[in-house]
Structures are given as C-alpha cells and as structure tokens.
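Hi support team,

I submitted a single chain yesterday and got back a structure, but I'm not sure I'm reading the token output correctly. Could someone confirm the output below corresponds to the sequence I sent? I've pasted both exactly as they appear in my results page.

Thanks,
R.
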Amino acid sequence: MSLSFSTNPSSNRSLKHFSDEVVARSIYTRHRDGKRIKFDIDNYIALVDSIITTADRITKGNKEGLKLSDDFLNVDPPIFTLNQISTELTRKAPGIEKAHQTTLNILDILVSYPWEAKAVLTLTAFATEYGDIWHLNHYSLLDPLANSLSMIKGVPFLKKQLNSIKYRQVLLCPNSLIYSCLRAIKYMNQLNKHFKHDVNELSELSSAFSRQIPLTSYWIIHIIVAAQFEISSYLNSTEGQPQNYLDELSEKIDSILNTLGSYLNIV
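Hi R., thanks for writing in. Yes, this is the structure output for that exact sequence:
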C-alpha cells in the first residue's frame, strides 16, 4: 500500500499528512520484522559513527586524529545492497512526497533485514558517499587525482555551504538531523539488547517499543533521504529542501529521541 497525495505543492510542505497511523498502514502492509538475515548492528554503528565524525573533523580543518577505529574490522558489508540504496538516495527530487516514496523503495530493498538494520544500512550508504567526498577533499592538495575527483564531485561548492544554517541543520552540529538519526539508532540498539535479555519484564513497555521500532526506522530513512538531497543540492548548486520541511524533520526526530529516551529511563 502506498500513500496518495495531492499534487498541490502545499501538500509537500507539511508532515501533517504523515501521522504515525498513516505511516504504519503504509509500511506494515509490506514489511514485518524480517529476521532472515543476521546483522551485527554494533559494528555498523561504530563504522558509521567513525566515518561521519571523521569527515566532519575534516570540514572543520581538524586534521589530527583522523585514523579510523578498527572496532568494526569484522563488518562484511552487503555491497550490492548498499549500492542499491545509494542509487535510490541519488534519485534527486525535493519534497516530502518524493522522500516518502524513496523511503518505501529502500524498505523494499531491505525487506529481509530487521528494522534497526534497515535504518543503519541506509545511514551506512549515506555515510559512504559523504565520507568519500571529504576524503577526496582531505587529499586534494597533495594528490592530483583526488583534486580532480573532488572538483568533479562538486566539493568546492559544498565547502561554501559549511557555515550555512541549513548545512549545520543537516550535519556538523550535535543535534543535526544525521547525528540525531545516529543517536536514535543507538537508542534502539540499547533497548533491543535490554528487551532481548529481559523478555518477561516490563511487557507493556516492551510492546510499546516493538510498535515504535518500525516507525522510528521509517523516519530515520526518510530523514536520510531528505538530507542526501540537501547535500546533493550543494554539490550541484541547485535549490535544496524547503526550510520548513527540514524544521519539521528536526521536530520529528527530536520527538522520536524523547520517546526512546523515556523508554531508556524506565529500563
């Protein structure tokens, strides 16, 4: 089941049409808690965290301590799946409706993975591209090939946006959209570990958390899709996402973090 919206531009400017009930109906018809593929979420979280924080240190001119942690050496990424996700993320079109449809497409790609894995794999695909951009920039002064590739990818245009409000709303700041998505994934992982070992405790809370996981994963992916378009708009010198859309996404992820945080406080 997919959502159908008016082509009126005003319908693309608010999340009011995307209540939890509406989103749940859309994703539950095609997606359950797939557990056919085992997934080491801890290593993927460490990997993504390392890539994003290291890339952001480069943007701030901090070239010290850029060695990546080796905590995630056992990660065996599903390359083909990540490439499929990246392809979806690079199908550039602004607005809520397009982000929603792209999110559903990504969920279809990840149908066999647990809900938390769907979120962290999408963030891994985003981080791979983002890290590659700033890795090229880091070596562009010393390596002619890196400099040429950096120019082709539009990194000089991206660098001009580093101090803009919208860029910092998407990345760099601790409460930015991408960092908040990473924090939400960490919260989900902590709660999953608790409920996995205490299945008979706090059954009502456990049930509430189980209902929250698919919605949280959906919104994390939706936000990553919107954020990727915003970054791409800087690289291509094109118009980005509407500011009010980004503001609504910030409110949504804050609400999710508050909910998950309240669960953690109880357990």
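A quick pointer for reading it: The CA atoms of residues 205 and 266 lie 9 Å apart. Let us know if anything else looks off.

Best,
Support desk
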